[in-house]
Amino acid sequence: MSTVTLDWGTFTEARFLREVWQRKPLLLRQAFAGFAPLLSRAQLFALAGDDDVESRLLQREGRRWQLDHGPFARRQLPPVEQRNWTLLVQGVNLHVDAASDLLSQFRFVPDARLDDLMISWASDGGGVGPHQDAYDVFLLQAAGRRRWRIGPVRDATLQPGKPVKLLAHFTPEDDLILEPGDMLYLPPGWGHDGIAVGNDCMTYSIGFRAPPQGELLKEVLWQLAESQHGGPIYTDPPLREGAAPALLPPAMVKFAAQAFAKLKPDAALFESVLGAYLTTPKPQVWFDRVEATPASLRRACQRTGCRLDRRSKMLYTAQTVFLNSEAVSAELAPSSLLRVLADQHKLTAQQVKDATPAELTVLAQWCAQGWLLTGEVAPPVATKTRTRRG
Ligand code: SIN
Ligand code: CO
């Protein structure tokens, strides 16, 4: 567990949610007083060299920007003394327990909104330029100093010909210097431009995605279309000799429109599609399979219980429970134990002991898939599985 905890100071969490969240920026000086970086610069650079880790390198020379995508061997990164470059490592919480623990301090926001923890390292002058994000973000200064210029975006025109989206006409309203432990909250769409002041600047971005309605609709429509798979086959109305061969038959257009009009999505469908979608692990996530049976799980949990793997994503609704894009069986859908696991990310030894046979069976299956971990480390099976839908 990260040793320092989020301190709201004179502010309170309730006041933040009521007055600030999604409305306006807030700077919390020493929100994490005494914060020590969870990874050293060398450890972060090493992570950026990993195939399973998403990373970007952004370098600036005057008005020229260069973007490269990882993985990066150390020699592919510029020397740390060179000015104006930054390395951005995405999804650090998927790889480092301490980073995942840090995110657990932000669970006053629903898990369904959580995206990831991105860590940036920047040399003096480094940054990603003026931009806006479709995220609520907490920018925690972990090491060094960063100057943030922030303000509402009145003109979203982008600079042409740049490898990253840079605002062409950004007029900041506030100019702030963040020291280690300070944290700046920005609502989605707020303009910001952070520049490292001095070397060894590390910023942690705790991002909460605000999914566009069209994206959620796409998932629902896709699922609905799948459920209609097959259906009646199009038949031509009586054809006339000499009709224009390239004309798209209006009857075929009507046929497709009728299929759409027949769709009657109910609330349960929206819940099941969103539950599966929002618990889909990130594309680069792999789980290590292990041998596990209900009996072996019960034994392994006797002293320490069990916990979700940090890469697992779990949500529930009043109807059912989702883990890593799968909904549980109808028999387990009402389980309060599984909801405790989703909220707490762990179960005590006693809770596992009290599990019903069906609950124990599903817990053992999740353990075998590597989604759930017991205190005792079971030997990994040779195969790794990537959990994906479809
Ligand atoms: C950074 O850490 O340099 C970028 C974070 C952001 O602007 O969202
Ligand atoms: Co940003």
- Rg value: 25 Å
What's the CATH H-level homologous superfamily of the largest domain?
Cupin
Could you give the count of β-strands? 17
Q: What structural class do the secondary elements suggest?
A: alpha+beta
CATH fold-level assignment of the largest domain: Jelly Rolls
Topology:
Blueprint: H1 13-20, E1 26-28, H2 41-47, E2 55-61, E3 64-69, E4 85-89, H3 97-103, E5 114-122, E6 135-151, E7 174-178, E8 183-186, E9 191-209, H4 213-227, H5 250-262, H6 267-278, E10 287-290, H7 294-300, E11 306-308, E12 314-316, E13 321-323, E14 326-327, H8 336-344, E15 346-347, H9 349-353, H10 357-368, E16 372-374, E17 380-385
Antiparallel strand pairs: 1-8, 2-3, 2-4, 4-5, 5-9, 6-7, 6-8, 6-9, 10-17, 11-15, 11-16, 12-13, 13-14
Helix pairs in contact: 4-6, 7-10
Description:
The protein has 390 residues and is α+β, with helices and mostly antiparallel strands. Helices cover 24% and strands 26% of the residues. The protein is built from ten helices and 17 strands. Strand 2 (55-61) and strand 3 (64-69) form a beta hairpin. The longest helix is centred in the middle third of the chain and has 15 residues, at 213-227. 30% of the residues are buried. Bound molecules: succinic acid and cobalt (II) ion (CO).
